Amino acid sequence: MPQRAPDSISIKLPDGRRLDATNETPGPVEGGELELVEVLIARRFDACPICGDPAATEREHVPPGSLGGKVMTWTCNRCNNGFGSRVEVDLLDWYEGAVTTWFASETVRGKRKTGRLLVRWTTNGEYVLLPAGKSDEIYAEILAAGNVEMEYDTPEHRRWSIALLKCVYLALCIKFGVIKGEWADQVRADLLAARDAPSRADVPPSKIAQRLHVWRGFAPEPITSDPVVTGIIHGPDGPMEGVLLAGRLFVSWSPANDNQAVTPAETGRRVTTLRVGKPMSSVVTAVMPEPRTPTG
Fold it and tell me: Is residue 273 part of a domain?
């Protein structure tokens, strides 16, 4: 199982203050009571449930393994591998609160790509950037300049919503069998359009995917260890049926109404200027979840 990115971190600053930051974005939270209905078990079909290819020989994780999913069905090679770099990478970045960044300053020629940075928020709306992996020493030289230009790409809703649509569709197939009808035909068409796009930038939007209603849990532990569980959210606008993924992510499979439909935030590359102060020696006092100790 892949190492999960930290949801929260506590840092003791040199003056004794404690900085607490989490993956939960500040702002109003939509409440609701979750009723779990049925734990789904793995199911195999005679053909790929997405495209109909009879060679459904590849193990399909629902949700993706990077989010804690497990093998729940089998798809063809193209449907198993064609979504990862096109839409599921955006889903992981959105789920983990990650951005891809470039830094530039007067001390180093050109922009330097830092890779993924995890954005963690304090209760007063400040943010902390945590490297997701190794960090090059050149970044310390860039940041030492004081005034730093940062470009960053945010996960695109039109892509990560399609990755969630794939999970919801496969969950429906696991529960009811390969579903039929106009809605199912359009879902399969949208998924195949994403799978066959020449690149991530060419993935077309899906109106169905953009109308999915999504709740993200931030509790230290998942609600359940089962990867796919059907359920009902009882919210202020009435009950909404859907599926709980990896114990943390509830996605409706009934479309949101016009008032509930997601309006994607501005996406694409953004540029901001950072004023960086002097380095401080701080101590990380807590990380959740705790990193796993390598074995073997």
Answer: no
Determine the Cα–Cα distance for residues 42 and 72; give it in Å rounded to an integer.
Answer: 4
In a shared domain, residues 103 and 241: no
Q: Which tokens is 92 given? A: 């992981």
Closest to 198 measured CA to CA, from 99, 85, 94, 56: 85
- Is 171 in contact with 62 (CB distance < 8 Å)? yes
Domain interval for residue 59: 32-94+156-252
Q: Are 8 and 120 in contact (CB under 8 A)?
A: yes
Contact yes or no for 208/190 (Cβ under 8 A): yes
| DSSP code of residue 86 | I
Q: Are residues 106 and 248 in the same domain?
A: no
Digit-coded pLDDT (tens) for 86-131: 999 999 999 999 998 888 888 888 888 877 889 999 988 888 888 8
Query: Tokens 């629902």 label which residue?
Result: 62
Q: Would you say the pTM of this structure is higher than 0.85?
A: yes
Residue 284 lies in a domain: no
Give the pLDDT band of residue 178 (cuts 50, 70, 90): very high
Give yes or no: residues 149 and 195 share one domain: no
In a domain, residue 63? The reply is yes
> What type of residue is 46?
D
pLDDT digits (tens, 9 = 90+) for 44-81: 999 999 999 999 999 999 999 999 999 999 999 999 99
Rounded Cα–Cα distance for residues 91 and 84 (Å): 9
> What length does the chain have?
296
What's the total number of domains in the chain? Answer: 2
- Say how many CA atoms lie within 13 Å of 133 toward its Cβ: 8
205: number of CA atoms within 13 Å, CB side?
10
pLDDT for 288: 85
Based on the fold, state whether residues 104 and 246 are members of the same structural domain.
no
Q: Is residue 171 part of a domain?
A: yes
Give, for 138, the enclosing helix (H) or strand (E).
Answer: helix 138-143
- CB count within 10 Å of CB 141 equals 14
